[in-house]
Amino acid sequence: MNSSGIATLTLKSLNANSYTLTAVYLGDTNYTTSTSVVLNQIVRQATSTAKLISSPNPSAVGQSVLFTATISSPTVLPTGPVTFRSSAGVLGTTQLINGKATLTVSTLPAGLNLVSVTYEGNSNISKSLASLKQTVQ
What is the CATH number assigned to the segment(s) 49-136? Predict the structure, then answer.
């Protein structure tokens, strides 16, 4: 509490949820105990954004292609798995490390391949996805 009698509390790690908050003053030699009115605080799910790049693009048949997914959020460091897919199906699933995940693939067929990455999110951060066109010659 400051000299004006104002108390503050800052929390940076609340999960997305609804919270019922009250402040309780335990009193002192000059003032009695008091409790504030109830405050209903809603912490919403953070947004996420996905970005996907590949190297090299274009690539040759049988050549290894490195796909890098970056998942970002303005308020939360995204964690957990991301899944890479092509039109032929799932290419693989890898874990985010500091918001990035990589996957190397050498089995893409010749032609234009639509490759996507999906981050499913969780109760605290939203789902996001990104895609790109990988040309295999």
Answer: 2.60.40.10
